[in-house]
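for the recovery benchmark. tokens below, seq after
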């Protein structure tokens, strides 16, 4: 048979495939996806929001990308990560607070996660950094939930040099405990660069790079701290240095993607997991109690671990959420409205979005980008890609109702309205477009709107809590860094 006689049927086959709407392969036309999560980054901790902290690489990506002016997370880390990876509401998942190291449960196992959907679409998947969604049982580990590769920590805050949480070493690669010298941000960056360098170029990559910084403890390389010697507050100097190290890491990541000719086919989504930690994150009663502890124990640790943990959080947090109200752990804007942008070189034109977009929108949006059909899934979040592409005329839908929950109460969003139900005190109603700083309580002046939001709150789907009773937290060791008192956390997985 001649070469020509073979070529004709092949051409005919190609025409038939194209006409039938069947796609030959998603591997070459689906983007790499990189989700970068900073830990406890404040609204005013990035240069493009006017901060004194220098973040030139972040600022450049934001300026060349799509800035999400009203992006909402949850008030603390585990709930945000749960919503990000599932596309669902944290209260429906029952994950409404940071998971304690004593907790045998984690993110409910009946949930399919973003990396599992992406694996099914041919993606290589990796988590580098913080997990904090359950680890006491193997079924909760990231490598059991869609990530081909995991390097980093399983619990909450670790020491950035010693990699210890609550008296146990928490640093590993794919289940193997590692004793590595180095600063956490540097080690995570090096792992991400190795991953990109060695990735299979024939398959798209999903990388979730989840930094441990600028979460407490305030630790950074001396040369990074020295760059902020003019800042009067030593804790703010440390915090600023931690943020600058993240900025440098992101720059290195982007440069490596460029060297590998991957950048133009990479969608990058940046966010903080919640607002930044500072004194405003706590009630006046808690702050005053810590002042009493400082008088009683001025130069030594408090005898009770939980009280020392509270004191450390109140005293050492140095983030800046201005002009927003309060910070991490709070349902007010400083706790939940966080820096975020989306970048895709050559694909997304620079612009700002003032529409409310939330962390539970990330999974449905990314699945929409890769045209992944998940007919059996019903997400609480929605696809926001038309807005990100600046084609919002194709999407006239209103943002879905959103709910956040923390120790200081609960808040319901039907944007631009927000109903705040404090743990103690009277309800509050705010119009966020005209009053983003939540100064003017409109609850008595708009009873009909307040009633609508109360009804939404009362009927919002809620799942069983995965958390232990509060008294367990009084006994658990969740300190950040310090002396190893027991075997590494990896050895305690069942």
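predicted aa per position
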């Amino acid at each position: 048979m001649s070469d020509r006689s073979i070529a004709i049927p092949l051409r005919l086959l190609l025409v038939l495939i194209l006409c039938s709407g069947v796609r030959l392969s998603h591997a070459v036309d689906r983007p790499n996806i990189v989700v970068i999560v900073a830990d406890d980054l404040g609204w005013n901790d990035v240069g493009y929001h006017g901060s004194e902290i220098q973040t030139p690489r972040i600022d450049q990506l934001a300026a060349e990308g799509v800035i999400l002016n009203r992006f909402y997370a949850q008030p603390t880390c585990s709930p945000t990560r749960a919503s990000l990876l599932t596309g669902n509401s944290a209260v429906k998942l029952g994950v409404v607070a940071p998971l304690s190291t004593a907790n045998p449960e984690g993110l409910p196992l009946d949930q399919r996660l973003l990396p599992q959907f992406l694996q099914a679409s041919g993606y290589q998947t990796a988590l580098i950094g913080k997990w904090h969604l359950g680890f006491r049982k193997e079924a909760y580990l990231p490598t059991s939930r869609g990530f081909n590769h995991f390097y980093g920590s399983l619990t909450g805050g670790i020491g950035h040099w010693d990699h210890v949480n609550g008296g146990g070493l928490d640093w590993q690669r794919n289940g193997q405990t590692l004793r590595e010298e180095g600063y956490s941000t540097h080690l995570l960056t090096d792992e991400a660069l190795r991953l990109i360098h060695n990735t299979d170029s024939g398959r798209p990559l999903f990388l979730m790079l989840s930094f441990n910084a600028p979460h407490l403890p305030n630790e950074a390389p001396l040369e990074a701290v020295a760059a902020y010697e003019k800042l009067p507050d030593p804790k703010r100097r440390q915090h600023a240095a931690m943020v600058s190290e993240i900025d440098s890491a992101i720059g290195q990541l982007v440069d490596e993607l460029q060297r590998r000719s991957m950048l133009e086919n990479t969608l990058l989504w940046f966010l903080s997991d919640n607002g930044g930690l500072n004194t405003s994150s706590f009630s006046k009663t808690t702050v005053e109690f810590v002042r009493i502890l400082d008088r009683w124990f001025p130069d030594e640790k408090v005898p009770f671990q939980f009280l020392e943990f509270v004191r450390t959080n109140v005293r050492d947090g140095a983030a800046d959420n201005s002009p927003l109200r309060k910070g991490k752990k709070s349902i007010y804007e400083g706790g939940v409205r966080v820096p975020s942008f989306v970048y895709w070189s050559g694909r997304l034109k620079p612009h700002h979005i003032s529409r409310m977009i939330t962390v539970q929108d990330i999974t449905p949006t990314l699945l929409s980008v890769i045209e992944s059909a998940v007919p059996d899934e019903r997400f609480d979040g929605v696809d926001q890609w038309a807005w990100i592409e600046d084609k919002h005329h194709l999407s006239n839908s209103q943002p879905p109702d959103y709910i956040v929950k923390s120790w200081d109460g609960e808040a319901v969003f039907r944007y631009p309205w927000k109903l705040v139900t404090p743990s103690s005190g009277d309800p509050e109603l705010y119009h966020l477009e005209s009053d983003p700083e939540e100064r003017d309580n409109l609850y008595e002046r708009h009873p009909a709107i307040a009633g609508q939001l109360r009804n939404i709150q009362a009927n919002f789907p809620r799942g069983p809590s995965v958390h232990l009773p509060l008294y367990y937290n009084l006994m658990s060791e969740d300190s950040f860094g310090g002396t190893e008192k027991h075997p590494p956390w990896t050895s305690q997985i069942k």
